[in-house]
Amino acid sequence: MNYYRYKLEGTYFEDGREISHIKVMPKRQYEPLFSGYIDIVADDWRIHSVQLLLTKTSQMELVDTLRVEQLYRPLNKDVWFISSQVVYPAIKIFGFDAYGSFANIYSDFNVDPVFDKKTFDNTILKYTDSSNKKTAEYWERTRPVPLMADEIRDYKRKDSLEIARKDPRYMDSIDKKRNKINPFMALLFEQRLTFQRSRTTFSFRPLTELIAFNPAEGWVINPDVTWTKDWIQLLSAGKVLLYLRYSAMDLPTNILMRIWVWCISLEKNILLPLVFPVAKGFSNSIIIARSGSGEILFHH
Question: What is the pLDDT of residue 78?
Answer without folding.
Answer: 82
